[in-house]
């Protein structure tokens, strides 16, 4: 399909899209609290004639914006939450805008805006008679704590889709084909008895002792789970002054594994360890389940179409000035970091990446058949409808996400990657709206590759964890 007109539509929106990326970057908001960000993006689509529904999944900052009618129905996923403690100016040295404040270290200021741009371009094609069907942009909050799409999926937000598309900023451009890890997020809070730790310790029962026993127990579990499984924890509340036996203490766990079944098995075992820790310390324990997501299942038919359109739309038009700033950022990274970030590439591609501080040319997937040791709530969507996503080169080669270097790039030349991503998403959306065979192929592959029916991992009655500030 010729997408010149689609690309021209996105280019006509470039000034508006870049302005939106800057606005989100300048007002970073944490997950489930992205009030200004969600309103900014939803208002753009509402003003353009989309039917906007807010409060999806019980979250005020989750919304959908729909245009068109009939089938096929294509969904575009967008995110806009920031990360704590990553405030950073657009500079090549560590320099927070405000110490301790959030920052867009994962590029979600680019992420959501590209989806909005794609939805606007798809609308214009529908209005012009170049496509028929329905397009919905989904504003998905709190991806960093793996919450937004999980609660939206539980409430059926994605059930009517024929396909879903999304992307993510990165240091290279390629379809995202790796499997991700399923995950549970659970807090265990122990309740004991306070006492003077020196004068009457026999009167106390330490909740912190119980937390420490739980954490120790989890360490002994590691030998008996799969190599790809991950168990990690923090202690958000360990008590107060050392001379007071802590009457309350909390451990927060992430459990990850390649399948939901293994995640649930490990979590059940961890529940038993928590009960054992309570018995050992004569305390009681409560369990608070925050969220649980599925592993990601990439759709090859859709991913191949994304790659075709990435090549049509690219390369990302970075300037000499962009490359100069990117080189300054890259110099702050260690050789070990850059090597680790490019290790998955073939030797030929690795040499090409090493010689280019920005590597904006689209390439075939470099992660087919691999397991990415992280999680995404896009996984839940991929179990409901055929789903594909891609990386777009928004940062210097070798830059990890969740770093101040990524924040600086996201506030400067990264906006060009957002415009590029809008082109790719728009073109692939229109391919789906106009090509019944592509929709059918994606569905056939989905039914063959997704190993079961989707059932939300959320226990009945689970509410979004608004108290979390990550």
Automatic annotation (TrEMBL):
One GO molecular-function entry:
para-aminobenzoyl-glutamate hydrolase activity
Q: Which domain of life is it from?
A: Archaea
Gene Ontology terms: cellular component: cytoplasm
The segment(s) forming the Peptidase M20 dimerisation domain are 185-275
For biological process, the GO terms are: folic acid catabolic process
State what protein this is by name.
Amidohydrolase
């Amino acid at each position: 399909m010729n997408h010149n007109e689609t690309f021209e539509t996105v280019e006509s929106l470039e000034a508006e899209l870049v302005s939106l990326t800057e606005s989100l970057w300048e007002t970073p908001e944490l997950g489930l609290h992205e009030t200004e960000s969600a309103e900014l993006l939803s208002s753009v689509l509402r003003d353009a004639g989309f039917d906007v529904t807010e409060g999806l999944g019980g979250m005020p900052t989750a919304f959908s914006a729909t245009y068109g009618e009939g089938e096929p129905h294509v969904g575009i996923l967008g995110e806009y939450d920031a990360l704590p403690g990553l405030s950073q100016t657009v500079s090549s040295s560590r320099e927070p805008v405000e110490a301790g404040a959030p920052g867009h270290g994962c590029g979600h200021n680019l992420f959501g805006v590209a989806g909005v741009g794609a939805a606007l371009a798809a609308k214009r094609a529908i209005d012009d008679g170049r496509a028929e069907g329905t397009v919905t942009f989904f504003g998905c909050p709190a991806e960093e704590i793996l919450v937004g799409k999980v609660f939206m999926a539980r409430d059926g937000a994605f059930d009517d889709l024929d396909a879903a598309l999304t992307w993510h900023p990165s240091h290279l451009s390629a379809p995202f084909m790796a499997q991700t890890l399923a995950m549970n997020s659970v807090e265990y809070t122990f309740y004991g008895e306070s006492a003077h730790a020196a004068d009457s310790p026999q009167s106390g029962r330490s909740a912190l002792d119980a937390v420490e026993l739980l954490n120790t127990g989890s360490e002994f579990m590691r030998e008996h789970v799969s190599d790809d499984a991950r168990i990690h924890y923090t202690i958000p509340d360990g008590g107060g002054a050392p001379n007071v036996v802590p009457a309350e203490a909390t451990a927060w766990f992430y459990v990850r594994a390649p399948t939901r079944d293994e995640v649930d098995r490990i979590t059940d075992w961890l529940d038993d360890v928590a009960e054992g820790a309570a018995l050992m310390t004569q305390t009681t324990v409560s369990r608070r389940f925050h969220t649980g997501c599925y592993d990601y299942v990439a759709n090859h038919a859709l991913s191949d179409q994304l790659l075709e359109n990435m090549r049509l739309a690219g390369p990302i038009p970075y300037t000499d000035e962009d490359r100069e700033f990117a080189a300054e950022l890259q110099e702050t990274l260690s050789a070990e970091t850059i090597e680790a970030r490019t290790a998955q590439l073939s030797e030929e591609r690795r040499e090409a990446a090493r010689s280019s501080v920005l590597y904006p040319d689209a390439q075939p997937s470099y992660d087919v058949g691999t397991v990415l040791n992280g999680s995404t709530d896009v996984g839940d969507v991929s179990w409901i409808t055929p789903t594909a996503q891609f990386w777009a080169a928004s940062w210097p080669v070798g830059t990890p996400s969740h770093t101040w270097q990524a924040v600086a790039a996201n506030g400067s030349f990264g906006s060009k990657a957002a415009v590029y991503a809008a082109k790719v998403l728009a073109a692939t959306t229109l391919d789906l709206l106009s090509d019944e065979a592509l929709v059918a192929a994606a569905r056939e592959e989905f039914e063959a590759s997704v190993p079961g029916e989707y059932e939300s991992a959320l226990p009945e009655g689970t509410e979004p964890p608004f108290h979390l500030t990550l």
